[in-house]
Amino acid sequence: MAQIIDGKAISQIVKDEVKSEVLKLSQKGITVGLAVIIVGDDPASRVYVNNKKKACEALGLISREYALSKDTTNDELLELIKKLNCDDEIDGILVQLPLPSHLDEKLIINSISPNKDVDAFHPQNVGKIMIGDYTFAPCTPAGVMELLSKSSIDVSGKECVIVGRSNIVGKPMSMLMLHKNATVTVCHSKTADLKEVVRRADIVVAAVGKPNFITADMIKEGAVVIDVGINRLENGKLCGDVNFEEVSKKASFITPVPGGVGPMTIAMLMKNTLASAKAKHNL
Ligand code: NDP
């Protein structure tokens, strides 16, 4: 039976570390601030934004929320970001995605100062991740790396298979693992014989967005299985991309959903905002 990687407990360790550093900075007169922009009234986005605000408050960060109407124009949003880019109290700017369809997501993301882009979606930060010289990594893949390291799972020399190649999860995940000397394979919907490829893995990261997609027959005995997926079932329950019931009998370590990768994402956002403040002050 696999050992459960407790994302809630590990995220609390990360948050405690951030909190103590934020306190130390405040004793030197340095504040750490995050601005979150939400456009429209998508209920899921509202929950995420509230959680980010709560985390900021709990860790002593300055938290500013900009809740804009669903009719906000590109120009209005660009104007706000321009102001925040120059705002000394703000170290991180996060635009909650998805944006309403009339807004140009690429244009908006690219207008955030790379120094304050704590989601690490700006092309400049994406490029820096590629060459391994970065201040921020996207929160979810960074959270996976933190889960692994805090569980004393070394990726160096391991066969790591990532299922999913999105810009937010799969691709940056592959780079972070590669920088830690893993041998990385990235799978997607056109991968031939997915089962055989995943079965080679010492470490599997599932980021597909399909409930129970990864089954026990795809998993090597003793593999580490990290489930990034968050899927809502018809009965309202959350479930991951991995069939936890059967895979947990074969894996050595596994993350549950909920309570695995999910809680790490906000913790890493806090860590990135702290890193931005430290970089600004050359600390
Ligand atoms: P995307 O929809 O952007 O990407 C899904 C990926 O899965 C694509 O690369 C797609 O391949 C691949 N895929 C789809 N079907 C198959 C298949 N049959 N075989 C192999 N690969 C397949 O999703 P995201 O990366 O944004 O998110 C993935 C999951 O992670 C979602 O459940 C999401 O909710 C969750 N998530 C969780 C977060 C957290 O905080 N824990 C944060 C972000 C996401 P192709 O490119 O060929 O289409």
Explain this structure to me?
With 283 residues, the chain is α/β, with parallel strands linked by helices. The protein has 2 domains: 85 residues, Rossmann fold, CATH 3.40.50; 124 residues, NAD(P)-binding Rossmann-like Domain (Rossmann fold, 3-Layer(aba) Sandwich), CATH 3.40.50. Helix content is 41%, strand content 16%. It is built from 10 helices and 11 strands. The protein has a 6-stranded parallel sheet with strand order 1-11-8-7-5-6. A 3-stranded parallel sheet has the order 3-2-4, sandwiched between helices. Strand 9 and strand 10 form a beta hairpin. Helix 1 runs parallel beside helix 10, helix 2 packs across helix 10 and helix 6 packs across helix 10. The chain is globular. The model has no long low-confidence stretch (mean pLDDT 97). Bound molecules: NADPH dihydro-nicotinamide-adenine-dinucleotide phosphate. NADPH dihydro-nicotinamide-adenine-dinucleotide phosphate binds next to helix 10.
